[in-house]
Amino acid sequence: MQQIYPEGYFLSHVLYGLALSETKPLFYGDDQYAIDAPDEIDKELECLYSDKGTQIFPRNMKPTYGIFYAGWTNYLLAKKLTNQIVRDSSQVRLFEHNCDEIYQAFLQKKTPYLESYKGLSWPADNIVAIASLALHDKIFTPKYQTFITDWLIHITNYLDKDGLIPHKVDYQNASTIEAAKGSSQSLILCFLHDIDTVFARQQFNIYKKLFVDYRFGLPGIREHKKGISKDGDIDSGPVILDIGGSASVVGLKTMSIYNEIELMVGLRNSIEAFGMAYSSKDSPHSFNNFDSKKYLFGQIPIADCFIAWSNVQAFSSDEDKLGNWRWKFQLISFAILLLLSGFNYWLYRKTN
Asked: How far, in Å, CA of 30 to CA of 24, rounded?
């Protein structure tokens, strides 16, 4: 993955760790599972803190290695500590140190967004970092809430023209370089919910209006807002008929968090259908007779990691209450089937 994506190695490990941290039966050692999640997450953290995990990030930044690296690693550590009653004291000290380093870096900046890489700033990375501070105040004695409140007020001065958090900003003055995109918005909203549920819901409502769309009766998340048609990039994944691959995969988790059950089910089932998923008990990664599932023929493991992380949140007891949300897709499919049948019959009559 590192050969394909700038952060392929890093994200593969951090997303797997996050998926484990949110899977309660794995975390609490349910007998039907063969993974001890806390130990497994520790292995992922070791990878992130290793030379291989840090090699693409410039060390001489504030916080160390930049806000992308600092934010994601600290958030994973926060999620692990959140789930533990008895916590490793060395990890608690590390978490406290990381939080303070992130906090101090923000205090020294006049604008609300720190650099992910030298001279480059993406708000999504900053929001992951702020979410780790918000989780600190839920786990331990609160110490960052006033700062977080002020930071949220600050970022409202730097929204794009639609009132959304931008995709990319100028690191010096936080002005918008690229307006909101579906891929980053889906991600931002997952972490913004940890920080402030009211502001997050306001942002979600705009996102839903501008980015949720339908193709052949099935829901998807656009990479660019309605009215704009562009190709994808390395972050967006494939963009087909304006629907973004990354935006829709992470959008599955977004819809779950914001209790949009019908959209969540539609996205999940569309990903299952068009993600070319297959399961096998022969995989070395299968355990206790559970199938090992891969998507896109298993060629893009980071896609598996994103889908696994998104699906952790995806179950809801309200799913059984849904009506036949598929009816538009079924009607379109039936119409296409009739047209194909009619065409075949016409060909048959013509050749005979």
From this structure: 9
- Relative orientation angle of helices 8-21 and 66-82, to the nearest 10 degrees: 20
Task: Dump pLDDT digits (tens) for 69-91.
Answer: 999 999 999 999 998 888 999 99
Residues counted in the chain = 352
CA 60 to mean position of chain CA atoms: 27
Q: Is the peptide bond before 58 cis (omega within 30 degrees of 0)?
A: no
Max CA pair span of the chain: 83
By CB atoms closer than 10 A (0-12, 13-18, 19+), residue 198 is exposed
Per-residue DSSP letter, 291 = P
State residue 351's pLDDT score. Answer: 73
Q: Give residues with Cβ within 8 angstroms of 191, minimum separation 6.
A: 75, 124, 127, 128, 130, 131
**CA distance linking residue 95 with residue 84, whole number of Å:** 14
Would you state the structure tokens that stand for residue 314, as one six-digit string?
């995806």
Degrees, nearest 5: CA angle 287-17-34: 20
CA separation for the pair 64, 163 (Å, rounded): 31
Beta strands in the chain (DSSP E): 168-169, 176-178, 212-215, 218-221, 239-240, 243-244, 278-280, 292-294
CB–CB of 301/292 below 8 Å? Answer: no
DSSP for 27-61 reads HTT-TT----HHHHHHHHHHHHHSHHHHTTS-SSS
Q: The pTM is what?
A: 0.86
For the chain, helix, strand, coil in percent to 5 are 60, 10, 35
Amino acid at 68: F
Residue type at 329? F
